[in-house]
Design a protein that fits this description.
By secondary structure, the chain is α/β, with parallel strands linked by helices. Helix content is about 40%, strand content about 10%.
């Protein structure tokens, strides 16, 4: 991994699904159920190439793989099922609140940059007891025209934070997200919540960790 002066980082930008919220299994379950209603028996692994690329691409990519023309109603149904699951099953990953608190105390800016629709971002964060006001900026799929692996979402976040990209670090769980962060000229810490370290390393993150607990003091040492 690259030799990085982590305490020189001024802003930390978090992906949401698979980083702050343990929600990838929920959207996967909802998507599989939604597609089943259209006669498609999708498997969990079918969705992996589309993780982090936005929820429309997430379900559309798999629908098209099975020869089914995508309709916007599919995503709407997936969200309907997802929001039914969320209150019962949503949870945060260990160390989320402690890391956010430590970063704020150290004077670092923090943001969320998620390809998901804003309604889902708000529901997820509320579901784990995090107010949007905790973050200096929240950028969602509603704010962008090009989804990850395009760097647009991270560049918008940096601009809103008024921090140069090279002074930002992204925390990502998805291959598409790691690729997007590096294309934005940012540092990246990849977390193995959704993909193996071997798969993540293909996109050259600056560091790979297994838990947010490992990076609580990374930016303030």
């Amino acid at each position: 991994m690259n030799n990085v002066k982590w305490n020189d980082i001024d802003a930390v930008i978090f992906d949401m699904d698979g980083v702050l919220t343990d929600s990838e299994p929920l959207i996967n379950e909802a998507a599989i159920t939604a597609l089943k209603e259209y006669g498609v028996s999708a498997k969990e692994e079918d969705f992996l190439p589309f993780v982090g690329a936005g929820d429309e691409k997430y379900i559309a990519g798999v629908a098209e793989k099975y020869g089914l023309k995508y309709k916007s109603e599919m995503k709407a149904r997936m969200y309907e099922l997802y929001f039914e699951l969320l209150p019962k099953k949503i949870k945060s990953f260990p160390g989320v609140k402690e890391l956010l608190s430590a970063l704020k105390k150290a004077g670092k800016k923090i943001a969320v940059a998620s390809s998901a629709d804003r309604i889902k971002v708000e529901a997820n964060l509320n579901g784990i007891g995090l107010a949007l006001s905790v973050f200096d900026q929240v950028v969602t799929g509603d704010d962008i025209t090009r989804k990850k692996p395009d760097p647009e979402i991270f560049l918008i976040a940096a601009k809103k934070l008024n921090i140069p990209p090279e002074k930002c670090c992204v925390i990502e769980d998805a291959v598409n997200g790691v690729e997007a962060s590096k294309a934005a000229g940012m540092k990246c810490i990849a977390i193995t919540n959704s993909f193996s370290s071997e798969k993540l390393s293909e996109k050259n993150p600056d560091r790979i960790v297994n838990s947010l607990l490992e990076i609580r003091t990374t930016f303030i040492e």
